[in-house]
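Suppose you are handed a protein chain with no further information: no name, no annotation, nothing but its sequence. What can you learn? This example shows the usual starting point.
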Amino acid sequence: MVTRTAVGLAGDPINIGLVGTSEDVISAMTAAGWHGADPVTLQSSVKIVSSVVLHRAYPDAPVSPLYYDGRVQDLAFEYPVGTSAKQRQHVRFWLVLQEGDEGRPVWLGAATFDRAVGFSHYTAQVTHHIAADVDAARDFVIDTLVKAHKAEARYQITGVGPTLNGRNGGGDHYFTDGEIGFVRLAATHDLHPGPPIILADPPMVSMKNALFQALRPAASG
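A reasonable first move is to predict its three-dimensional structure. Written in C-alpha cells, the prediction is:
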C-alpha cells in the first residue's frame, strides 16, 4: 500500500480512493478546484523552476512520476497554495479495477502536501518536500469533493496501516492512521444535493483511529 519511485524506493502511501469513471474523476476534481498536472517535459520543467524562483503562479505544474503495481500514475491533480508551485496540495491516481463491487471503476491514490522545495535526502536531487501529516492531505481532497457536491458516499478501508515514522522516496518523514479514504463520486454531469452518505467504520478500526489520534502529537513532533 505504498507507491514506488522510478528506482524502486518506497514512495508516498496510498491513502485515498475514488469510485467512478475517468470522466467522473476529472469532472469532480475540476469542480472541486483542482488542476490537472502538466506532463513532465523540458518546457514544463523550466516553467516550474521559474515559478518557484520568481514566485509566479503555475497551477498546472507537473508532478514527478510515482509507480503503483508497476505503473506510473494515470491521473494527477494539484490545488495551488500561495503564489508559486513551491507549495501545493497534490494527488496522483491509478486505475486499479475496471469494475469494482459497486459496478464502477475503482481508483487508488496518494495525496500529499508539498511544503517546500529542496534536495532529496537519498539522491540529493532537487525535489519537493512533503508535510508529514499525509492524513491531512487525504482529508483535504475529500473535503473539496464534498464541498463541490461531487461525493455521493464516503467510507474507509485499511491501507498501509498505522505508521508513525514512515519515509517517502525523498526521505521525508510522514505519519498516517493507515486508512484509505474512499469517495463514491457523482456522475460526470451530476451533483449530489446533500451531504454524502457516511459508512461507519468497523468497531476495531474506530478504536485504532482513536488510539492513533492520541499518538498523533508525538508523531508530528
